[in-house]
Amino acid sequence: MLAERIVFMDGEAIVLDKPAGLPVATPRAGGTSVEALAPAVLRFGFSRAPTPVHRLDQDTSGCLLLARNPKAHRRFAAAFAAGEVAKTYLAVLDGMPEGEGGVIDLALAKRSTRQAGWRIVADPAGQPARTRWTLLDRLAGGALVAFMPESGRTHQLRVHAASGLGVPILGDSIYGRGNGPMRLHAWKLVVPRGDKPAIIACAPPPPGFPPLPQHVADAA
User: Fold this and answer.
1) Contact 24, 34 (CB under 8 A)
2) 220: which strand partners?
3) For the residues of 19-48, what is the DSSP string, one character each?
4) Is 57 a catalytic residue?
């Protein structure tokens, strides 16, 4: 139940720990979604259903911000557009990257073909995209990393892992080898609100993720 997956709520906002596999927007082919379920299960006495402020890929779990009124939605959307929202993702990589961390500065563009459909590729003429990253732990055959995107392009972290670090996210069926669920989780979200206290939310990693190193867990 989505109502049991709320990690933050006040009069303006809800932060939902979105499960992997559930799309934010209703697919063209139909089916359920966060937007479709919100009117029935996420009102909590409000006359309006909350609306998502941003997007997570269907196969990405974790913190999703929903606004509880149109005015709050406009302010939150403006904060995202201005790069004021701090986002931290956890990812298990299908291999070991070089180094302990850094910045991936790799412009992205959309490409599509009739045979393969669309995907995002690294392209110097594309939209600017930057991601800070830190190695959190070395795993058998892979690595646990934190991604801190400074922009919000479609599939940014997935392409920055595969093309920027040269190591795709484990389970990524488009930019990696697939072989199971994709291990990408929107762990922390911090949204400034001017004179009001910031929204600070943290969604615990789902089953299947390696345990966080103690110093990382303590900082959550």
Assistant:
1) yes
2) none
3) PTT--SSPPTT----HHHHHHHHS-TT-SS
4) yes
Q: In whole angstroms, what is the distance from residue 137 CA to residue 147 CA? A: 13
Assess contact for 64 and 52: CB atoms under 8 A: yes
Query: pLDDT per residue over 42-70, tens digit each?
Result: 999 999 999 999 999 999 999 999 999 99
Mean per-residue pLDDT of the chain: 95
Give residue 112's domain range. 2-218
How many H-runs (helices) and E-runs (strands) does the chain carry? Answer: 4, 12
Write the CB contacts of 74 (distance below 8 Å, at least 6 apart in sequence): none
Q: What CATH code is carried by the domain that includes residue 32?
A: 3.30.2350.10
pTM listed for this prediction: 0.95
Q: Which of 10, 17, 57, 137 is catalytic?
A: 57
Q: How much of the chain exceeds pLDDT 90, in percent?
A: 88
Domain count, the chain: 1
